[in-house]
Amino acid sequence: MLSIAAANLPWLSDKLFCLHQITVKSGWLRWFEWMLWYAICFAAGFFLEYKTMGVLTEQDWEFYVVTLCLFAVFALPGFIYHYDLKEILKSR
């Protein structure tokens, strides 16, 4: 649930990391924020694994690619809302 919420935050909020209000939040800044949210969720996953198992399991590159792709899929509703649906709803 944390990953789904964090993946959508950059597109649903015009604040930087939901804390600092900025006048214009560009697309590059949204992508940068999205990558930082991915890193935070990834670190939280490692932390939870270490707390429950006591050891971190070694992963190959495929694991990291799959987690990045899942995070991108989780971000799709917020991305579609920000770039497509928001304008349609404003015009109605």
Describe this structure in words.
With 92 residues, the protein is mainly α. It has one domain (2-91). Helix content is 74%, strand content 4%. The protein contains four helices and two strands; from the N terminus they run H-E-E-H-H-H. The protein has helices spanning 2-12, 27-53, 61-74, 76-91; strands at 15-16, 20-21. A two-stranded antiparallel sheet has the order 1-2. A hairpin with a 3-residue loop joins strand 1 and strand 2. The N and C termini lie far apart (32 Å). The model has no long low-confidence stretch (mean pLDDT 91).
Brief write-up:
This protein is mainly α. The protein has four helices and two strands; from the N terminus they run H-E-E-H-H-H.
- The strand count comes to 2
Radius of gyration of CA atoms, rounded to a whole number: 16 Å
> Order of SSEs, N→C?
HEEHHH
Whole-number total of structural domains: 1
Low-confidence stretches: none
Mean pLDDT: 91
Going by helix content, strand content and strand pairing, the class is mainly alpha
The helicity comes to: over 70%
Biggest sheet strand order reads 1-2
**What shape does the CA trace take?**
elongated
Strand content: under 5%
- Number of helices, where a helix is a run of at least 4 consecutive DSSP H or I residues: 4
